[in-house]
Amino acid sequence: MMTGAWQSTENVAADGSGEAAEQRVFPPQLLRHDACQFTYEEKCSPRTSHMQWLTYGLYRVAAGGGSGELHHPREETLLFCLEGTQRVSVEGTDYELAHYDTLYIPRASTYEIADVGLQAGLIAVCRAAAESAHPVAYSCWREVQQDERRIRRLDGKDVYIMFDVDRPADRLVAGYTIYQPHVRAWPPHNHTDQEEVYIFTQGHGAIEVYPDEQRKTFVHSVGPLDAATIPPLNYHPVFSYDEPLHFIWCLAGARYWVGDKHEEFMDASVDRLTT
């Protein structure tokens, strides 16, 4: 016998008398080939890049739409809300994400996404292999902007640490960096124990990713929703053009932010830095 909303009403009484209850008729839907409530676009993964852990993609949510259950059995996940207002339900607990809010979802937790702002939603999603499950962690962009403990002030640019090492995780650390116009990263730095993805969210600029000065073969202009993968040992300076440039940085590996580990990065007292 069928169960749920479409259960047959034959021999089902509304009042227990044995008389059949009237069955409600629901309207159908025409689903055009280009209509969609929720999509995932995978941009890179360990299978398609030279990285060991990081996968990056985008969730697109139609206005008023949403997903079914989502589940990453061997990965921890970070969501970055870029457009719209989304309700994310993690194991039955709801979190509302507005512009630039960030949510950490533990390994193997199920979650669902629903648009609640009547505007199409866009969420950047970064995942990394994890062995342990840690608590859910929500970071509100409006609050982080007012919390100097979560901000690192550099010359012409500010770093907002949305998911810091004080939040338990296996490998992920992440935040936003905002450059003022006509600013470059200094000093260039690379990582021996972290891989990274930069996801540009606002403005226009350029990025270089290279192993040494003689091999600057990756030099590209970038704009909104362009991204770059940064395997270990690659320097990766960014340059802004005539407007502020925003980007997500998401690290997987050893859990630290370069400026918190090396004072030379903060005071620019060296011409390059290996971490």
Describe it.
This protein folds into two domains: 38-139, Jelly Rolls, CATH 2.60.120.10; 142-274, Jelly Rolls (Sandwich), CATH 2.60.120.10. Helix content is 5%, strand content 42%. The protein is built from three helices and 21 strands. The strands form five sheets. A six-stranded antiparallel β-sheet has the order 1-2-9-4-7-10. The protein has a six-stranded antiparallel β-sheet with strand order 11-12-13-20-15-18. The protein has a four-stranded antiparallel β-sheet with strand order 3-8-5-6, with no helix packed on it. It is elongated, with a radius of gyration of 23 Å.
Question: Strands, helices and their partners?
Answer:
Layout: E1 38-44, E2 55-61, E3 70-71, E4 75-83, E5 86-90, E6 93-97, E7 102-105, E8 110-115, E9 121-129, E10 137-139, H1 141-145, E11 151-154, E12 157-163, E13 172-179, E14 189-190, E15 194-202, E16 205-209, E17 218-222, E18 227-230, E19 238-240, E20 245-253, H2 258-261, H3 263-267, E21 273-274
Parallel strand pairs: 14-21
Antiparallel strand pairs: 1-2, 2-9, 3-8, 4-7, 4-9, 5-6, 5-8, 7-10, 11-12, 12-13, 13-20, 15-18, 15-20, 16-17, 16-19
Summed up:
This protein is mostly beta strands. The chain is built from 3 helices and 21 strands.
